Amino acid sequence: MPDALPGLFLGQSDAAQPENLLFNRANRHGVVAGATGTGKTVTLQIMAQGFSDAGVPVFCADVKGDLSGISQVGAPNEKLIARATEMGLTLTPRAAPTVFWDLYGQKGHPIRTTVSEIGPVLMARMLNLNEVQEGVLTVVFHVADKEGLLLLDLDDLRSLLVYVGENAERIGREVGNVAPASIAAIQRALLQVEQQGGDAFFGEPALKLEDMIRVGLDGRGQVNVLDSTRLMNSPRLYAAFLLWLLSELFEQLPEVGDPEKPRLVFFFDEAHLLFNDAPRALLEKVEQVVRLIRSKGVGVYFVTQNPADIPDSVLAQLGNRIQHALRAYTPSEQKGLKAASQSFRANAAFDTAEAIQALGVGEALVSVLDEKGAPTIVARTKIRPPASRLGPATDTERAAVMAASPVRGLYEQVLNRESAAEILANRHSAADQAEVQAKAQAEADKAAAAQAKADQKAAEARAKAQAQAEARAAREAAKPARRSTRETPVEALTKSVLRTAGSTLTRELMRGLLGGLKRR
Prior knowledge:
The chain is of the alpha/beta class. Helices cover 47% and strands 11% of the residues.
């Protein structure tokens, strides 16, 4: 029976041979490619559930919403049952143990991380910054580390940008010029991310990887499905988030070498979004993570329309390859078809390029790594039918899965501890209060000085008036006393009596004299 063979049963080749992806080679990464509508999502679904059944936790992005059906028991139709019978496969419908996640917290448990954990490189990618602006953002992160300012959410980053702008001259002397125009450009980019709902991604509680790398009591690995139907409207945020998650896995997981089965399998759907217009520094980081994370027991599988979407330096590290049909109508599509066909180990039974174009829905060219780590000869393969549902889960079914989730209630409540925004606000508040107090003190000192000056003038005026009075008194005292010419009543009476007496005497004398003379 195919399901008794080692490894993950992918399907049956034209030569009636089972095609199995060996678990001890699953951490050598892989690619699932093909045009829209050729069956990539179903292949991803059967691989995710196959790894889960083997006790391997899985993380995958659900771009269209179809992958949510993995959480529900399948209801195979006659066509699927016939294909399973043709392969000798016993199709037992059952659901995979699923946990739904959503950056926006609407169709799954919210996922958060801090701005510090994202780092300046991924943040610059998310904000679509140029090289100069990325340099300024690096300075901002440096200042945060130097001054012990936690960068948890976008408010923290925005506050620190204002702080760096206000202190650009001092900071520029230490780490280089910080242009106000670059600060303004970063602030505008932050506003755009916030308007797209990206602020929900930053904050606490931050995601703990152990909540994704779970194995149930029944021995099956947890399938983590990230609802990306809304997230795809912000492709840079989508790509930056998934790369951050890979980086966290790389940094936190211990080395295990080549285990019997992976510790985690990571499916990166719409992988071309990660590499579109990516700067060289970011490509180098992706290449490094993909190359080294294998020894951590993590397998990374890129899901994209054409393998040509993936840089050669990364594509060369993808040992397990599943290629669905491609159409080649334009020169660029023909170039991609040629690259895809040449990446397989040739099969003498058919022309690889022609076979890729002739594949039907649910068929693929498969080449996986054998026990020696060498790629097998490419085989035209009918992909096995899934045990879980084909098609999306309903909102009611999704809510039921979330209610029974092992992480229910751990991430729904937002935490807001003291970080850069609060610390800088307190600094500004203290500075403003000190400024108000200094201004009030200055006004009080000014009023006191004015009052003192007025008091001094008043004292000087009083002293001057007193001096003038004293001088006047001194002058009066120095003058000789003058006799009054005014007659008193007694003097007037005496003078009148004397005058009357004198007139009478004179008159009598004259009469006597004249009389005497007359009598002679």
